[in-house]
Amino acid sequence: MLSNDEKYMKEAIKQAKKAYDLDEVPIGCVIVYNDKIIARGYNRRNTDKTTLSHAEMISINKAAKKLGDWRLEGCTIYITLEPCQMCAGALVQARIDRAVVGSMNPKAGCAGSVINLLQMREFNHQVVFEKGILEEECTNLLQKYFKELRERKKQQKKNK
Q: Other C-beta atoms within 10 Å of 113: how many?
């Protein structure tokens, strides 16, 4: 039997697979309020041609519209990859209660890998943070994407 965290992370992984199908870095997330998914999102930076189209940013906007408030108190966000500085800051600004992450991001993660913006005492809000939920599945999807991307780039170089 899956825990609630695993159940919702599976939904975030489904979103990441949508990004993968668009040839985007496969990152997905869902936001849960009162044990119901109120927003879903996946990485669309290349598709939308904007830095702001991270899975978290898209989901936060949808959740705010759904709840009719920019404050997402009482919400938990499930993200397949540790958030960057922009997204971690947005989680704090949105007053999200809890963030659950699959894979950590040692190169750019801002929930503990490089810096922990979610739990800085200096800010007026801290986000409870859990990591490693379905980590292997989240990591494997990312690794598969980047391996295929390297192979494609290698082929393109060969064909020039």
A: 14
